[in-house]
Amino acid sequence: MELEKWFKLKKYPHIGLPITIADYRWVKKYIIDKEKISKHSFLPLLHKCISQRKFRPDKSRTDKTKTNRRFRIKGIKDRHIYFSSHIDSLILSYYNSLLAEAYENYIKPKNFNDSVVAYRKIPLFENSNNNKCNIDFAKSAFEFINRNKTSKLSVIVADVTSFFDNLNHKILKRQWTKVLCESTLPDDHYNIFKTLTNIKYVEGEQLFESYNNIAWVKRGVENNANKFKYVKKKVSKSCYFKEKNVVAYCDKREFLKNNLNLIVSKNNEFGIPQGSPISATLANVYMLDFDQHLFDKISNIGGYYQRYSDDLIIICEQQYEDEIINFLRELISLALRLNYMIFN
C-alpha cells in the first residue's frame, strides 16, 4: 500500500495515543472530508521551549585557554516550539500539501518566482528530477556579482525579527484566500486558520506533573516480536521520555476530563505557531505582496533579490543603497520588524 506524502507519522508524546500505519485508511477518509474538517475540534498544542547554545570568541581577552584557543562566550537563544496532536498534525500536513500546490500554481507565472527559494522544490533545470539546494541558491547570487564585477555593488542581507510571531492575521487570511482563488476562506480552511491564529496550548512539563509523572509507554508483547501494547508507567523525568519509549502524556478522554484548566489561550492579532506542518508554507503565502513589491523595485534598478524564509539578500549598485534600505524599511514595517547588514 502506497502512502501519500502528507501521511507523516510523528513520534513525540502528546495528548492521545499515536497514529500508526494501521490507522491510514480511516485517517485518510476523515481528513479528506471537508465537512468533517470544518467542524473538527483541534486539541491544544504542546508548548516546549528549546534552548540553543551559541558560542563566539571573547575578543576582549588576550589570554588563551590551555589549548591556546580564545575563551568562548556562551549565549542562549530560546525557541518556542508548538507541537500538534498526532491527528491534528496529519490534518495540517494534508492541508499544507493542498496549500503548497495552490501557492506554486499562483506564483509560477509571477516575475519573482525564482526569487523565493525557501520550502519549495525548485528543479535544477526544466524537466529535471533533481531540485536545487542552498548551494545552488548561493551560487546564483555569486554569479550575479561576477556578471557585474565592473560595477560598485552593495550587498544587503537582512532577517525578520521573530518572523512567525509577527505575522498579521488579517494579512494572512487575505493572502491565504488569494492563493486559493476564492472570495473568502472555505469552511475547512477557515477552521484551520482559526486554530493557528487563536493559539491554545499546554505546557508539557505541567501536563506531565499533573499525572504524577505517569505516562503511556510502548511495550513489546511477550513471545511475540511483531506485537506491542501501551501501558501506563511512572517515568522519573521528561528527559527520559525517549529512553523509556513514552508515547503519550494521557489519552484524549483523560485530558478533556481532568486538564482543561491547563490550557493557555494566546489571543492577539499577530503570530502563528512555529513548528506546525503548515507554518512554512503560510510564511511564503504571507509574503506574496512583499515579494512582488520588492522584486519590482530591485529589478527596476537592475539588482538582485532572493528570499529564504525570513532571510533576504539584495544586491544593487551602491548609488541605490540608501533608496533600497528606506524602501525595505517602509515595506516591512507594515507587518514585520527588520534587522539588516550591508557589505560593499
Provide a descriptive summary of the structure in words.
The protein is of the alpha+beta class and 344 residues long. The chain contains twelve helices and twelve strands. The strands form three sheets. It has a four-stranded mixed beta sheet with strand order 1-8-6-7. Strand 6 (214-221) and strand 7 (224-234) form a beta hairpin. The mean pLDDT is 88.
The rounded distance between the terminal residues' Cα atoms is 56 Å
Q: Which value, in Å, is the CA radius of gyration? A: 24 Å
The biggest beta sheet is recorded as: 4 strands, mixed
**What is the strand content?**
25-35%
Strand tally: 12
Mean pLDDT: 88
Order of helices and strands: EHHEEHHEHHEHEEHEHEHHEEHE
Overall form: globular
Helices and strands: which structural class?
alpha+beta
> Largest sheet, order of strands side by side?
1-8-6-7
